[in-house]
Design a protein that fits this description.
This protein is an all-alpha fold and 335 residues long. It is built from 14 helices and 2 strands; from the N terminus they run αααααααββααααααα. The protein is globular. One of its GO terms (molecular function) is transmembrane transporter activity.
């Protein structure tokens, strides 16, 4: 009887879920508050056209957020998301315009390139032992520079009409692009909650040494998440290519801030070990809401950058508080 009472109960998972639910509820209330504010301030904000544009923009923000989220799960980061995305876009655009290849195989080739570039990041990180921050910071310039040299910064605007039309399709009031993003989110939810690989990714982020001692092939996990991040960055670029109807070398230059905002606001830990797929979607929705609301109010883009920067700082403070709170509760529970 005494041995049963003295055995500690692991409530880490329960606490994580409790914190996640609390964060999701708080984030949802903030989003509702912004929607009410913008709707009262500018009635055009809730017009069917603006909502469609907002949701279509949201679809790309969500996938960009997922691209960072999967790497944050291991405690790493990927600063080369924008560079990988634009490389995939330019490669697909080149195949469609210069090579006359139809949209489907060109898109597959672009996604494959994203996987390869992400895989290169992972391999370099594992083989050299250099931090993901330094490696992906270097490959950001490497990939972008190589793309500009090979394409001569040319814009590929002869995209098949059917592919460009895809971005304007909708099911009811929901853009098809958003359905694609949500399908990706469902796949990631299954990965992290119900698969062995997902548990290995999270355990690597929580404690890489302990995970390795438990039989997890940490190096392979790191390479996998970077390859997956590259795929998602390429997918975000392809969705944007469909929306714009042209492959431009400027795509991806402003992805870095939103890519961190969505998962961090959603509750994903920067230190690794915990992710929130639903939270990332809500975080991206908050960013898209603020961006759309400020545009409708005709506020300058520099104010948008200021607000997003302030929101990221606030999210980092909240994330830090959440980490300290979780650690304090764990110590209390272990007594």
């Amino acid at each position: 009887m005494d041995s049963k009472l003295s055995k500690p109960v692991d409530l880490t998972g329960f606490r994580s879920l409790t914190l996640e639910h609390g964060n999701l509820i708080g984030l949802g209330l903030i989003i509702v508050g912004f929607w009410v504010f913008f709707a009262l301030k500018v009635p055009g904000f809730v017009s069917s056209f603006n909502i469609f544009v907002l949701l279509r923009s949201l679809s790309i923000d969500v996938v960009i957020g997922f691209s960072t989220m999967v790497v944050l799960a291991t405690g790493g980061m990927n600063l080369a998301i924008g560079s990988i995305g634009v490389c995939a876009v330019m490669f697909s655009g080149y195949l469609m315009q210069s090579c006359g290849i139809s949209a489907a195989p060109a898109v597959v080739a672009g996604l494959a390139l994203g996987i390869v570039l992400g895989w290169i990041n992972g391999v370099v990180i594992v083989r050299t032992g250099v931090s993901a921050f330094i490696v992906t910071l270097a490959t950001t310039s490497l990939y972008s520079g190589a793309m500009l040299i090979l394409t001569k910064a040319q814009i590929y605007n002869q995209i098949p009409p059917g592919f460009a039309t895809f971005a304007r399709m909708q099911v009811g009031v929901v853009p098809v692009l958003l359905l694609v993003a949500l399908a990706v989110g469902l796949g990631l939810l299954v990965l992290f909650r119900y698969s062995v690989l997902g548990r290995e990714i999270l355990s690597t982020g929580a404690n890489a040494r302990a995970a390795e001692l438990s039989g997890v092939r940490v190096n392979r996990v790191i390479i996998f998440v970077h390859a997956l991040s590259g795929f998602l960055a390429a997918l975000a670029g392809i969705l944007l290519l469909s929306r714009l109807g042209a492959a431009m070398p400027s795509i991806g230059q402003d992805w870095l801030l939103p890519s961190f905002l969505a998962p961090v606001l959603g509750g994903t830990l920067l230190a690794g070990g915990f992710v929130s797929v639903v939270g990332t979607v809500l975080g991206a929705l908050l960013v898209a809401t603020i961006r759309s609301g400020l545009l409708v109010m005709q506020v300058g883009s520099f104010w948008l950058q200021l607000f997003l920067g302030l929101i990221l700082l606030l999210a980092l403070f909240i994330e830090r508080y959440r980490t300290l709170y979780s650690a304090r509760r764990s110590k209390l529970g272990g007594r």
